[in-house]
């Protein structure tokens, strides 16, 4: 389905919007709401193969029957070493088996290194991904060494890889202090580097959580820890996560909200309409994904969440 603002772009139901759906539920929710594609976390793939007893052929059949593509696998977290990790190999296999075109690569677990070292690691990753016909999308996070869009674009430019782009998640853009002028001032070359757009919303000021959500957040955090161990193995996960270098004084609160407190587009205070129009105005043609990590949405049936996300996006895009 073409989007109003980005007519050539796929519209993607992101894995984080339905963190605990089964594979079949995820695909059906995307189909019924009118999405073109989905993304998939590695732990969701492992659940599908180990608990739901689906083979890659089964998953491909489900996707084809629904007319839904798998666009990206997300997130690759431990990409800073000299060689591919087990998690990276798993994600290459997922992409190959299910037809994904990209791997989303956040800087969440970046160790205490400088930008030149990070850029060199990214070049190595792109070279490995190129052998699988995959694009790498670098996602900036405001509490890391790559905290904003400007830095991400500079890293991508310095890396000089043809299979490398930037993921612009509007939550990170908003909380990192970027503005409409940031987008309006992008050059054509910079706009072309933005290959992946993730949409959601947030209030201008972070809200205190009620007790119910505090308990839910504790459960979600434990789930994330368990997922990390499943994907990376316990020793590897604790090694890479403990080496993470945070550069923001409010990192813990930012990470908690990013993983649980987002709202539907239009329900927060982001000037989404202006941002989307500015991106289109500078020639940006990204995949458009709805990524809404939300404790409230996680309590609802997958099809209802997907329909709400699509309706919210359509309302924002039509203004």
Overview of this protein structure:
- Strands 1-2-3-4-5-6-7-8 form an 8-stranded parallel beta barrel, surrounded by 6 helices.
- The model has no long low-confidence stretch (mean pLDDT 95).
- It is of the alpha/beta class.
- The protein has helices at residues 23-33, 42-50, 56-66, 86-98, 115-130, 149-159, 170-175, 180-184, 188-193, 211-232, 234-242, 251-260, 272-281, 302-318; strands at 11-13, 37-40, 69-73, 102-106, 135-139, 164-169, 194-199, 287-290.
- The chain has a single domain, classed as Divalent-metal-dependent TIM barrel enzymes (TIM Barrel).
Give keywords:
49% helix; 8 strands; globular; TIM Barrel; 319 residues; single chain; 14 helices; eight-stranded parallel β-barrel; alpha/beta
Quick summary of this structure?
This protein has 319 residues and is of the alpha/beta class. It is built from 14 helices and 8 strands.
What topology emerges from the helices and strands here?
Blueprint (H helix, E strand, L loop, with lengths): L10 E3 L9 H11 L3 E4 L1 H9 L5 H11 L2 E5 L12 H13 L3 E5 L8 H16 L4 E5 L9 H11 L4 E6 H6 L4 H5 L3 H6 E6 L11 H22 L1 H9 L8 H10 L11 H10 L5 E4 L11 H17 L1
Parallel strand pairs: 1-2, 1-8, 2-3, 3-4, 4-5, 5-6, 6-7, 7-8
The CATH architecture assignment turns out to be Alpha-Beta Barrel
Order of helices and strands: EHEHHEHEHEHEHHHEHHHHEH
Q: Biggest sheet, in brief?
A: 8 strands, parallel, barrel
CATH class: Alpha Beta
Percent of sequence in beta strands: 5-15%
């Amino acid at each position: 389905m073409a989007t109003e603002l980005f007519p050539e772009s796929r519209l993607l139901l992101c894995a984080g919007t339905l963190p605990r759906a089964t594979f079949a539920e995820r695909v059906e929710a995307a189909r019924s709401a009118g999405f073109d594609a989905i993304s998939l976390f590695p732990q969701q793939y492992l659940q599908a193969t180990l608990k739901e007893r689906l083979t890659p052929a089964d998953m491909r059949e489900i996707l084809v029957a629904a007319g839904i593509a798998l666009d990206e696998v997300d997130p690759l977290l431990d990409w800073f070493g000299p060689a591919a990790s087990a998690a990276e190999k798993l994600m290459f296999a997922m992409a190959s088996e299910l037809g994904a075109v990209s791997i989303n690569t956040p800087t969440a677990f970046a160790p205490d290194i400088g930008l030149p070292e990070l850029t060199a690691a990214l070049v190595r990753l792109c070279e490995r991904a190129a052998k699988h016909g995959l694009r790498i999308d670098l996602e900036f996070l405001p509490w890391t060494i790559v905290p904003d869009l400007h830095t991400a674009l500079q890293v991508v430019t310095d890396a000089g890889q043809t299979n490398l782009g930037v993921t612009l998640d509007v939550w990170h853009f908003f909380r990192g202090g970027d503005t409409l002028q940031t987008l309006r001032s992008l050059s054509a070359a910079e706009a072309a580097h933005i290959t992946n757009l993730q949409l959601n919303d947030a209030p201008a000021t972070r809200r205190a959580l009620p007790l119910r959500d505090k308990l839910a957040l504790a459960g979600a955090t434990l789930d994330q820890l368990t997922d990390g161990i499943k994907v990376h193995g316990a020793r590897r996960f604790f090694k890479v996560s403990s080496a993470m270098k945070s550069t923001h004084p409010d990192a813990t609160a930012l990470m908690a909200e990013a993983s649980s407190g987002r709202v539907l587009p239009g329900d927060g205070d982001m000037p989404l309409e202006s941002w989307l129009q500015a991106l289109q105005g500078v020639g940006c043609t990204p995949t458009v994904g709805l990524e809404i990590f939300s404790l409230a949405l996680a309590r609802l049936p997958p099809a209802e969440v997907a329909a709400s996300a699509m309706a919210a996006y359509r309302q924002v895009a039509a203004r």
